[in-house]
């Protein structure tokens, strides 16, 4: 058995001897349990969970060949806290270890499933919008051209005001169509980027835009984060869209203003878009506003969905699209007084 292959897996793998003691732990297990494989070697599996008797019974039955694969729920001990996990107990044959224990955090599994669902929904939405935008674009040009020809034939200045309305609205719709099609056009241009330089530039632009509202933007940076590959223009647009969205919500409330916190961290052993990454950059945009309305939380990344009367519903959709092009995802959690959008990007080129 090639043990190196286990380090490529996103789930935590423990190989256990007949006494129930750990003989091997992969990288994901080290991350989950917060201990190195050297420290874990020889540790009793039953000491890891609250339901030690249940796990002990399952391990003994697996060693006796009474089942091939059994799935159970356990509460993993993590210091003074516990973490719920799915456990698959697999009986091995003709191997140095009689049992393999696979652990997966329930929260992480649900998050991976949610991210995959968002990715599939975004793909369907993009396809629908691309088709719709192409259908609208040609007749829209005809409407604008006809209005211009009509305006040239009119002598009445008041009537020309109506044609100007048609032309200006056609231009506005053309701009909207171009924004819907823009993400599909240009390829990514990768370069090594400093996330804090991008954050600072985006914060400066948003602060200037909303200067009259007394908006407070604070930083909580991990200065040790190295440069990473990405398309600077698109990731800059992602940050602007997410930060500006938070600022607009805060400045439309009564009284206007509030706090936005930009936080950067590195997460380890994360699954993004069905791929496991050793290091993932996490950029959080946190605000203390009223939160995302519950009725649109499941659709907040869909195009043309917005909780603001003046919103277009394209900012977050475009941000999600650009991040997914990098192999990452944008996720969020929201309640009144605390909304956090997290931009997760792999730190290696997809």
Automatic annotation (TrEMBL):
Catalytic activity entry: ATP + protein L-histidine = ADP + protein N-phospho-L-histidine
Keywords from the named record: ATP-binding, Kinase, Nitrogen fixation, Nucleotide-binding, Phosphoprotein, Transferase, Two-component regulatory system
Domain Histidine kinase: 131-349
The enzyme's E.C. designation: 2.7.13.3
Keyword Kinase: yes
InterPro entries: HATPase_C_sf, HATPase_dom, His_kinase_dom, HisK_dim/P_dom, HisK_dim/P_sf, PAS, PAS-like_dom_sf, Sig_transdc_His_kin-like_C
Any one Gene Ontology molecular-function term assigned to this protein's record: phosphorelay sensor kinase activity
Superkingdom in the source lineage: Bacteria
PAS domain ranges (all copies): 5-42
Ranges that cross the membrane: none
Gene3D superfamilies: 1.10.287.130, Histidine kinase-like ATPase, C-terminal domain (3.30.565.10), PAS domain (3.30.450.20)
Keyword ATP-binding: yes
Record function comment: Member of the two-component regulatory system NtrB/NtrC, which controls expression of the nitrogen-regulated (ntr) genes in response to nitrogen limitation. Under conditions of nitrogen limitation, NtrB autophosphorylates and transfers the phosphoryl group to NtrC. In the presence of nitrogen, acts as a phosphatase that dephosphorylates and inactivates NtrC.
This protein's name: Sensory histidine kinase/phosphatase NtrB
